[in-house]
Design brief:
Number of domains: 1
CATH architecture: 3-Layer(aba) Sandwich
Radius of gyration: 19 Å
CATH class: Alpha Beta
Helix content: 40-55%
Number of helices: 14
Number of strands: 9
CATH superfamily: Vaccinia Virus protein VP39
Length: 298
């Protein structure tokens, strides 16, 4: 088991978990993050399901194409398409780890498992992540429908990547902001003419402003869900907590009850073409009081 007191803390004030993000299979990812109550996929699920319904209503759409930035092993796809939860996935991979099956055996078993599940939402998921092993695993097991593994922070989209992203209805993220920023979202926004909605959960020690500014230049309005914050995971140790608080204060942000109680906390931002944002404001589309996983500010 990992010694949390010895985990390196990166300049952004977060523990470094590089060893779990691109392993050949997802067992260590779920077991490690499960230890720290990694909740943001579950906490964000009700928001995304409401967004899908709103998008279908506003644009008279049916099947939706979703691009997940920082998709890892396809966690959001598993939750949104198949109706699973993080606790169910963590339990599955804890059991598979105890069985000591090989990666090849697990991949075959996961393919059968996801193929047998009934789709809960009519969604096509394209994952975007530089973790090639993780993305490959998610595609091979049918969790993701397609993937892009290019580093859009530092390179332009290839023709094949543009083809994969073109026609996106929604671009989502549940924790990639900070690892990626304006450059990645600018390259995505330049693809095609579909003008997707961009929905992101952003840890409070990071700023969404550079991305919002870039999108404003393209006719988008970005809204913050003002009265709600969402738990991401528990701090791994006292050093991570202290660094997170320092980062917040450096941005003139006071710790919320979640952060004071030992959790990373995230804000939710939604960017849409201005005419759509004005026609259906975020506070009406997503009333904070109806979101079961949000902490409501007083």
């Amino acid at each position: 088991m990992i010694d949390t007191d010895r985990l390196e803390i990166n300049p952004d004030g977060k523990a470094v978990f590089d060893h779990i993000y691109d392993a050949p299979d997802p067992r260590q990812y779920y077991l490690t993050l499960g230890k720290y109550s990694y909740l943001i996929p579950d906490a964000s699920k009700s928001v995304f399901l409401r967004l899908y319904d709103a998008y279908r209503t506003m644009r008279s759409a049916t099947r939706l194409n979703v691009v997940d930035v920082g998709c890892s092993y396809g966690i959001n796809a598993a939750l949104h398409k198949f109706g699973l939860s993080m606790s169910e996935l963590q339990a599955r991979y804890a059991a598979k780890s105890a069985e000591q099956v090989s990666t090849d055996e697990l991949r075959i078993d996961d393919h059968r498992f996801f193929r047998a599940l009934e789709l809960q939402e009519d969604l096509v998921f394209t994952g975007l992540d530089v973790a090639e092993n993780a993305v490959r695993y998610a595609v091979e097991t049918r969790i993701l429908d397609g993937a892009v593994t290019e580093d859009l922070e530092h390179q332009a989209l290839s023709d094949s990547a543009m083809l994969a992203i073109d026609g996106a209805d929604l671009v989502i993220s549940t924790g990639a902001i900070g690892y990626v920023g304006r450059a990645t979202f600018e390259r995505i926004a330049e693809v095609g003419t579909s003008r997707p909605w961009i929905a992101a959960f952003v840890l409070r020690q990071f700023s969404f402003a550079p991305i919002a500014s870039m999108l404003a230049e393209r006719g988008y309005t970005t809204e913050l869900l003002e009265d709600a914050i969402f738990p991401q995971r528990r701090f791994v140790n006292g050093e991570e907590r202290r660094e997170a608080i320092v980062k917040l204060k450096g941005m003139d942000r006071q710790p919320t009850p979640l952060e004071r109680d030992g959790w990373f906390a995230a804000n939710f931002f939604l960017a849409r073409p201005t005419n759509e944002a004005e026609a259906w404001p975020l506070e009406d589309l997503l009333p904070s009081q109806k979101l079961p996983s949000a902490t409501i500010k007083n």
